[in-house]
Amino acid sequence: MQKWIEKNHADMIRKANDYYSPVLRTLDQRQVAYRLAREFAPLFARIECCLVANVHLAKHHGLPLTIQRGTGLGAGDFFNIYPATWDSEENFIVKELINPIDDRDIAYLEAHFHRTVPRLQIPHMVLLNYLYEILKDPQQVAIVLPRHRKSFHSYLMKAMKKVSKPYDQPNLHLRSLTVSDLVNMLPAKS
Question: Which domain holds residue 94?
Answer without folding.
Answer: 40-161
